[in-house]
Amino acid sequence: MSSDFKEGEEGAENYFEHFLEKDPLGIIREEEVQKIVPNTYLHSGMYDFEAGPANKREIAKARFTYLWEKGEDGKWKILHHHSFVKPKQ
């Protein structure tokens, strides 16, 4: 949950390290997976996640997009990620 643009592998790692410190719990509400080329998929949808200290957890409803690639080693990697917290109505 950052408004900063993160670039490259180092930026992505930094983002997820700080995000994981908030002990997030996510639930995908809607999703679609599209094959781009063999072993590369676009995964998008809506999710809700809780984050923050135990006594002050907040639920954020957000849109998400991940571009996944399965490497020759069989491990999935995130090539690109974007999420956007929906405005409160």
Q: Name the strands of the widest sheet in spatial order.
A: 1-2-3-4
Our measurement of the CA-to-CA distance between the termini, rounded to an integer number of angstroms, reads 19 Å
**Structural class, from helix and strand content?**
mainly beta
Average pLDDT works out at 87
Give the number of DSSP strands.
4
H and E string: HEEEE
Radius of gyration: 14 Å
Low-confidence stretches: none
Approximately what portion of the residues adopt beta-strand conformation? over 45%
Largest sheet: 4 strands, antiparallel
Helical content, roughly? 10-25%
Overall shape: it is globular
Number of helices: 1
Which helices and strands occur, and which strands form pairs?
Blueprint: H1 8-20, E1 25-37, E2 40-51, E3 58-70, E4 76-85
Antiparallel strand pairs: 1-2, 2-3, 3-4
